Amino acid sequence: QMADPFLYNTGERSPYGCLGHEVQIEYLKAYVCRPSFFTDKAVIVAHDVFGWRFPDIRYIVDLIASHGYITICPDFFKGTEPWKSTDHWSDFADWMKDHDPTKVDKEADVVLKYLKEQCGAKKIGIAGFSWGGMAVHHLMLKNPQLTAGVSLYGRIIRDSEERYNLLNPTFFIFGEKDHTISLDQIFLLEEKLKQYCKVPYKIKVYPGQVHGFAQLKPEDMKPDDKPYIEEARKDMIDWIKMFV
């Protein structure tokens, strides 16, 4: 189904010292970062194929927390191995069968319960990247407890009418040069949302950007890409602030 890896070149990544801490929630491990002041607003971050320990995703968790949200990235892979850049692409389809981004409902419920009961969260949004972007699209169709979603370059899967009936405001972020998502697919998504979606939504394509662009840490950004990366992040935070 996919001609090209649904991955991006992780290249040389700089180390990252995290600001949050790890917790155990029922059967899930999770990384949590809290703002320095009390808030009853929270954001769940859905990681990509590289899992909840990937430094880039922890950087994003800390970034969202710095805007005043209890931010949590649970291990949606439930302790199984994330994809590694050294793994063989030929095994990816099999790996994906065991790591289905549309089978995250139970984990989402566990985390929502924790945020409400243990953290006092009253409004909860979700942002997801790549694999996690697909999980966000799925959850925004299924879980009314999530008051807003941001899906960053989640592949657009299975065309059916149910794919467009979003329950709450959802923002789709894409890179223009993403080798896993064609502009045709994005135009189709927009057309179908116009037709079926009854809540606010937004689709934005960032010029020249490749898959995975928005989660780069500052020291890993190329100067030409930096303005678009920063814009995408600001847009993500603005959407969350508007609805969460």
UniProtKB/TrEMBL annotation:
Pfam families: DLH (PF01738). Residues 29-242 form the Dienelactone hydrolase domain. Coiled coil: none annotated. This is Carboxymethylenebutenolidase homolog. Its main location: cytoplasm. It comes from Sapayoa aenigma. Belongs to the dienelactone hydrolase family. It comes from the Eukaryota. One of its GO terms (cellular component) is cytosol. It is found in: Cytoplasm, Cytosol. GO terms for molecular function: hydrolase activity. The gene is Cmbl_0.
